[in-house]
Amino acid sequence: MSIVICLFYFIVATAAKNAIEDRNKLLERELKMMLGSDISLSDSEMKANDIIMDLKIKELDYAFHHPQTFNLSKHFFDYKDEVEDTELFKLLQQMPKGAVLHAHDTGLLSPDYVLELTYMKDLYVCFQKGQVQFLFSENIPKTPCAVKWQLLSDARLSSSNVEKFDADLRKHFTLVVSNPKEVYSDVNAAWRKFQQYFITTGPLLSYKPVWEQYFYDTLKAFREDNVMYIEIRSVLPELYDLDGNVYDSVETALIYKEVLDRFMEDYPDFYGAKLIYAPFRMVDTKTVKKYIDIAKEIKRLAPDFLAGFDLVGQEDIGAPTKDFLSELEEAKSELDFFFHAGETNWYGTSSDENLLDVIALDTKRIGHAFALIKHPVLLEEVKKRGIALEVNVVSNVVLKLVDDVRNHPLAAFLAQDLPVVLSSDDPGVWEATPLTHDFYVTFLGVASRHADLKMLKKLALNSLYYSTYPNKDKIVHEFEIRWTKFIDNIVKDKW
Amino acid sequence: MSIVICLFYFIVATAAKNAIEDRNKLLERELKMMLGSDISLSDSEMKANDIIMDLKIKELDYAFHHPQTFNLSKHFFDYKDEVEDTELFKLLQQMPKGAVLHAHDTGLLSPDYVLELTYMKDLYVCFQKGQVQFLFSENIPKTPCAVKWQLLSDARLSSSNVEKFDADLRKHFTLVVSNPKEVYSDVNAAWRKFQQYFITTGPLLSYKPVWEQYFYDTLKAFREDNVMYIEIRSVLPELYDLDGNVYDSVETALIYKEVLDRFMEDYPDFYGAKLIYAPFRMVDTKTVKKYIDIAKEIKRLAPDFLAGFDLVGQEDIGAPTKDFLSELEEAKSELDFFFHAGETNWYGTSSDENLLDVIALDTKRIGHAFALIKHPVLLEEVKKRGIALEVNVVSNVVLKLVDDVRNHPLAAFLAQDLPVVLSSDDPGVWEATPLTHDFYVTFLGVASRHADLKMLKKLALNSLYYSTYPNKDKIVHEFEIRWTKFIDNIVKDKW
Fold first, then answer.
1. According to the model, what pLDDT value does residue A318 have?
2. 3-state SS track over A434-464
3. What ipTM was reported for this prediction?
4. Which residues of A are catalytic?
């Protein structure tokens, strides 16, 4: 009898061991596949990793049992300030984060910065129908204004309350509100306000002296957030000055280049910037042809500065990429593409299928690629062709693609080690730091509980690897030096 | 010169053609992979498909340009009644939908049905602290009540307003509210109210005569929604009657079986039901062992009626499946498993990793599998092992996994032809039809704009194929007969 019982327990124990073995093997296979799993950590990195993971796990495990406390499943506006005080955020701020490869010209600096610009002299303002119009001018502008043009300094002075005047003005320079879910009820509502930001700030920021300063200060802000290099997308608007000069898109590009050169002289530890010319997509094919000519001209004049070409604007609205396929295909041999695609949660629509077009056009990277998760063939192609995905989680929350970042498709992209780079799109418009918030939200809110320093390092390295920076060895080498210093600081508790 | 120009245009035209060809090939590959793509439509089906797709495309394309009008990106409670009036909904109601493989005992019929039960005689009620307690009894119940037990008929009669009394009572039988996003602010808030529904209705529905009637009427309701066969999950509570008898879980299962036999005599066109014994997961291993013994006993007494075993309850809270791995592994040879797993949007946590355990335990199907999209290895395994995914989109919205169904991972499951079956979980608790709402939301809100009648048919066929109905040929044959009739009715405009 006892032999029978023993045998029985032996069978049970073996069977149980098998199930545990099976599940652990499945888990191991997944962890080995995950983005960052090919990174080996040094002893110091392992120590730093323990510190980082301790911060992460503590927060996650509490939230798992108290989901109502988990900030990151709420709207970004509800927690963005609060998380800045956490140790994990501060640590990520210190982390060398590599490059920013998806960021738009005038959406990068805070509303406070833009407000400060309105203290400049020669700025005229026209308040009408809840909107505000700006223009730098020596005399009263001749462009139409339903009410009246006045010097902004006069308007401010004659207001009964300067603080309130500035606070009201500032509202035009941000999407942040206290009740985002009500104000931004759908994707179009969010985009309307988003586009209004660019319309409002356009004449303010395209004043040549401001344009130059804004770009200089952008580079500075990104450098301070521990970014080494950026690829900036710009619509390249016409710039103007007080002497009546107008600078066309090609000239605007060259002005960018001049500012960059100056910045690099002042901050030689920065690794520079390149331009992706990214004009509006809501145009006809004739205009796209013109765009391509402009891009080619910039390339001719500043071949090292122009990274390539893109089209911007809300994908769901206006022409799909397919409409310009012929023109773009023609330009392919001369220009590198970095197209936006799949910034939508419609499935099977023309905007969703921009993903097909940009891959057919041999795009080097895809901006957003949010919808890619619904495209098994394209997921394979992206991996096979080494097309990087420029993922902007915070942007996708603010512009209403997803409410809870835990449902962001980036989680699945990371799980299968797709070539992901993190970016921040227009962090100034939603009052985020240049890149740290996106890393924080991804690390804590999107990635697996298991994702650790290896993933963080790989994301930073990806941003260098998939950039068009010409000397990868050099920039990666410098990254490694900064990374080692960062790790040492963590281990020595100096961050 | 003209030859050069001609040659130039020829090159351009060829190149352009290539890009179009490429994108179309990529699209074709995806459409060929999609769930339902292996179905061939007859001429009649093609005509019906045109009608269905016309309804779908019209609605989708309008919503694409006016996203604020798109009901299905809102909360289910905000549109569930409205969509019932659409032609597409009515058409889907008529559609033979195959089987329901994921539905829970007492969550299936509407609050109006439950309210009606409170008009039965011998029902006592105890109102206390905003909650309500019920008990059928010949005399005043002896179980504790903070205020007082009274006959419900007396309480109703002595209320100043019967309509209001009933409306207040009805609130305990539904999760539907007019402001769902405020009331159900997080997953725990939703689950609390959800669990309270089962606690409140428990003593009402576990009264043996009610239990029998409820199951009979469930079968009727599902049959009327054009479901042929169901696999019902039950916690198998103890039942009671006025004579003081108490019926244990095994007896409750046999009572189910008796009701089913009676129903099948009354409605021989129905294809029957099987039971998945699914007790609460928030227990210790000793209790799980007891559960397994109960399941084995039911299997011994009614081998054709018991489909298998599962565990229920909020996965994020309480013990992960891993804790019972040994006990479950031991039972594997005798019981088929149909486990819930991955009903979570946490990633890398114990509830997320229940997916690993249930696959290691050779589960036949996975209930929900919401988190599976983040598990590339498991996605492969599920396909390789033919493990069906019981997806419950509406449930996932109501129980706070996802706000906008367009972001439901089901879209990706359908895209890669995973073995999906649609189900409705607890449609009575959120006032949905037995299965039509889930088909409607999936077809219009989740699946690709390209998904058509082929996908609908395949989903229905999947539900039969992945069921445990013993004679697949027979049930599929009957399905085909009903399907042909359904198609004829559409084509003849008779639906």
1. 77
2. CCHHHHHHHHHHHCCCCCCHHHHHHHHHHHH
3. 0.94
4. 343, 368
